[in-house]
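Example record

One chain of 284 residues, shown exactly as stored in the release files.
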Amino acid sequence: MLAALVRFAPAQSADVAPIASAPGTPASPATNIGRGLSLTAAPPHVAAIMALSAQPPERSTGQGGPTNQFAIDVDNFGPKVAAIECDYPPNFRYRCAVDYPTAVLDASRTRIRVMVPDLDKGRNVTLKLTNTTGTTDVPLEIVNAPQTIHEIVALALQGGGQSVVGPNGKVLPVQNILTFSTQTTPAIAVTLPFQREACDEHVYALWSSGTSASETDAVFTSAFGPLSGSVILQQPLVKNSPVRPGNGPQWLITFAASAQRVQFIAHYEVVYRVSVCRDNVIPS
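Predicted structure tokens for this chain:
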């Protein structure tokens, strides 16, 4: 999925040293840089940027997700002379993945695909494109909104299932009110274990806010049919804390003593992040 083409005039930076040429062999006005491309004696020049569908698709919505992808049309940038890095504030340098060229547009222009992960270091990232002549800074913004997971929760009610025998010998429900609290976590607490550092583009989840959990459609069942009851969030979650076993929402469940089970739909709002791969960290 491609976004509208965005024409771009990036700033040029001297903060990153250019790739060193062999001693005594400076770049010529038209140096072959591989794949049929030629390099002119100038830093990379970005002509256009397009946002692509984020990755992984099962954790993303359109262009927003844990890893943002961008197609960039750039002059003077090819596999023999190219270097690329993502700079996160305040001073975290990271080696982002890049495919180039995905298309050769003319003798000096190519289209590259850059993958920018959300490393939980803010939304603003500076992409630095470097060739033998210099460096160009490309400011980017990560799009990665919270997402809601819906899961059915079914629980046995502690102390429930009570009944009494009436004067006529008929078994009757007990309407006394009981309460108990319990904690739940979504399945991703197990399938996406919390790891701040891991390679292979590992994704984990954080609670997006203190009220990241809610419920609907609670049904209390008993031997006498449905009974009344309630499920409420007992205490707030810690924003940006990890989604993992033992760190889920605490529910206060109130029910009639004859109720045996409760079923409800839990709604968990989380934000996905990508683990930092130490192999890709560039020393500052």
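Notes: The two ends are 35 Å apart (CA to CA).
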